[in-house]
Amino acid sequence: MGSLYNEDDPEYKQTRLLFDIPPPSFETVPPILKDNHTNYFAPRDNRKKFKSSHSNTLPYHRPKDPPSSPPAPQSHLQKHGDSRSSYKSLLKSICFSFSIDQESAQSLLTQYITIMNIISINSKTIEINDSLFPIPLHERIQRLKARMDTAPRGEYMLARAKSNPLALVNFSGSYSQSFILFASLDSEFSISNRLISLNHPLIIAELCTQKPTGLSTYLKSTLIKSGVTFDLIFEDLNKHEAPKNSHNPCSLVNILDDNKDFITAYDFWDHETSKCDLESKSLTANLSVDFVVADLSYTTSCNPIEDEISIYKNLIKTLTFCLTTLKPSGSILLLVEGTNTNLSAQILYIFSLIFSEISVIKPLASDSITYQRFLYCKDLIISKESRIDILNLLLSKISKDFFEKDGPIYTILNPETFLSSPNFVKFVYSSNLQIGLLNQQYLEDILKFLDQKNKPPKFNQKEIAEYCKTLWDLHQDS
Q1: Over the Cα atoms of the chain, what is R_g?
Q2: Which residues contact 404 (CB under 8 A, 6 or more apart)?
Q3: Helix, strand, or coil here: 414?
């Protein structure tokens, strides 16, 4: 087949990304792209200092160690690399965090609750916001994907494997992708150790869109090894009606499958509504859960806008579950797709007001073809009164048809509410930009391998796989 990636193609060599809001700093650009400017242009940051105000002087946190991306060809991490210690920098995640002090967050939340409103919008009006993610970069990524669609399936999969330094980590297929994702994340951010340090017994909840995933499997395995007492519960986010057949524990099927994880069978939205007495403005259920995990990244669409809409609906459910069930100081870890539209950004902003810190993290083990990333929200800080106020709005105004595939789309906050916070916009833009640049580089690598079929992998994948298996403790059965 013809050349898919052409160094002389002006569409790829000379197209420059001109941003209305420039990248916060050239330091956010991966080293590999600093050395190769053919696909990225970083204008000087000539923005004026933000005027002092309560909402825009809130702290914006970069990670302590600047994130890094896969190194350029011919580096010490390639096929003939001899320094295993250097893999540590290769495997470092993209991570951006944002926090607001508790007093300011509560003040802002109290203010915004009075103007929150459930408003129906036309799905056709939902689009990528250039203030949150540069549209030229998004369009370039879509063009690169379109070029790959012309490649034979076998050649595409081989080129993708050659481009991925972690291609051999799960070569045997012993672990689910989400299990490996959590293992890689935990090795860097010690999420399970944080849980182990809490008072026991713990209650862990997984919100499921299909079935229990490797996120809860990994957590279960890790906590058992550490001798932690805990309960693991599962909630079906997609359940809209009670099951027609009752669960029969004496049936042959259930006897043979006695150890399976049992997902709750009641209607999710009805159950959340039952936890809150809207008339007396009180919670009828105990705040019992310490930690929530959910893989919300599964979608059936190839359209990033439709994907965000689908995930947004589950984020609304997740927000509701946190307000009805999560303990004060509880945390959540969500695997999501992009946060490139106002829909996703508004939920992100609400999370920033009810948790002490939110982080967007993209491990190298995640899918570099998509906008997949983790959203880690630590330490719920919302007051009991604000819980009830937001729940009253969500449960009384959002009908079940909202959660149907073609149901209406509702917004909660006017976009100007969060877009007027420069530090929040900077946080979202920076994380989206960094992930987008990583996607672009990975896609271009795949196209180059499609054109040069005999070219060997960029990295010593076997050595990296052994390093990761040891680092992530993947040598033992899950």
Answers
A1: 23
A2: none
A3: coil
Whether omega before 201 lies within 30 degrees of 0, making that bond cis, reads yes
Neighbouring residues of 195: CB distance < 8 A, sequence distance ≥ 6? 202, 204, 219, 223, 228, 290, 291
* Contact assessment for residue 356 and residue 302, using Cβ atoms and an 8 Å cutoff: no
Please identify which residue in the block is written with the tokens 């829909």: 343
Classified by CATH at the fold level, domain 90-140+174-242+259-436 comes out as Rossmann fold (3.40.50)
* Residue 235: closest CA among 267, 266, 208, 269: 208
Contact predicate 237/297, CB 8 Å? no
- Model's pTM, two decimal places? 0.80
pLDDT in tens, 346-370: 999 999 999 999 999 999 899 888 9
Phi, psi of 186 (to 5 degrees): -65, -35
CB-based burial of residue 268 (10 Å sphere; 0-12 exposed, 13-18 middle, 19+ buried)? buried
DSSP state for residue 388 in the 8-state scheme: H
Instruction: Report the pLDDT value the prediction gives residue 51, as an integer from 0 to 100.
Output: 33
Residue 122 and residue 172: Cα distance in Å, rounded?
45
Q: How far apart are CA 115 and CA 132, in angstroms?
A: 23
Pairing of β 289-295 and β 355-362: unpaired
- Put residue 10 in one of left, alpha, beta given phi > 0 → left and psi -120 to 50 → alpha: alpha
Let me know: does 340 contact 304? Beta carbons within 8 Å: yes
Region 169-181 average pLDDT? 88
Percent pLDDT > 90 in the chain is 57
Cβ neighbourhood burial of 306 (10 Å; 0-12, 13-18, 19+): middle
Split at pLDDT 50, 70, 90, the class of 263 is low
Contacts of 452 (CB under 8 A, 6+ apart): none
Tokens, residue 448: 């180059």
Closest CA to 288 of 353, 235, 240: 235
User: What does the pLDDT look like over 76-122, one tens digit per residue?
Assistant: 334 334 445 567 777 889 999 999 999 999 999 999 998 898 899 99
Q: Does 11 have pLDDT greater than 60?
A: no
Answer whether 215's CB lies under 8 Å from 206's CB: yes
Neighbours of 162 (CB within 10 A): 22
Element (H, E) at 461: helix 461-471
Q: How far apart are CA 275 and CA 395, in angstroms?
A: 10
Per-residue DSSP letters for 263-319? PP-S-HHHHHHHTEETTTTEE-S---EEEEEEE----S-S-HHHHHHHHHHHHHHHH
**Domain map (residue ranges) of the chain:** 90-140+174-242+259-436
